[in-house]
Amino acid sequence: MKSVGRASKYAEEWAAAKRTILPNEPSPIFGHCPRKSLNQSSFFLGKRRKMASGASKTAQKVCGNDAKLLVSAPFSHGFDTLLNAGLHESGPSRVSHSVKRRVARILLALAPLCATAADLSKLLKDIEKRYNRAQTLEVRFEESYKTGGRTRTESGDLFLRKPGRMRWQYSQPEGKLFVSDGKNVYFYSPDSNRAEKMKLKETEDMRAPMAFLLGRLEFNRDFGQYTHRQEGANLFITAVPKSDKVPYREVSFLVAEDARILRLIVQGQDSSVLDFSFSSEKLNPPINDQMFRFVLPKGAEFVDSSAETFRGAQ
User: Among 93, 259, 284, 304, which lies 20 to 30 A Cα-Cα from 215?
Assistant: First the structure.
């Protein structure tokens, strides 16, 4: 965060460099530049512009497409502005040591921003690789759901299998179940002894997108803006979806250095907050397909919302 502060400080010098500097007047960046002959001016102006172009290309090479991950990061032509400030119709005087120091300080202040963007982009790709390459996943979860001033806390085990299959098996409250077979989702509540079936693609339950954590995770396809902060050795990332038709308006996740997702926070369009903490993750454990087939508990009421039918269990 100190590097960001330095960048802000030197942004003032950067802005000063963008002012129009008249010949024979001191430049806030380059000092006094007396007028010389046109040939001399053109020669040295060309050299300095070549330096500016090289610096700009270096910045683009370092940041690349990752620059879009930063908020308010004016990399595009800042280096050219800095190095060309006050040079128009100016003489061939050498760039002073103080100028070199200032340029170096600004480059050093901006370099960590590029590195941060590159690190974030790499981490997002590592997350995609970790989960898209996995065939199965087992993880312990703790869930907190906040809505209308009330909070509900639950826990259990999550099982995932490609493609689109999942089982949320709750231990608290015991017996609660949320299952997807890849086409439909089934929710069973032991409190009401009632089960409901819905089409996976039609449900607005915020657990449903987790069915596609394996194999179909692609951040840049689904999200358009990112912010992030360091939390110890982990990175806390917040992403805003590109579409406003999804049931959530913001997703945040805490990621370990090895690309494990440790926490997932989903901000719903209805202002609800679903907060998951994950632990004891196992990649590619053996999981029987029977885990993703819903068996209606005896005596339970069953509602088939996918077919708009209703019947009682036998």
Answer: 304
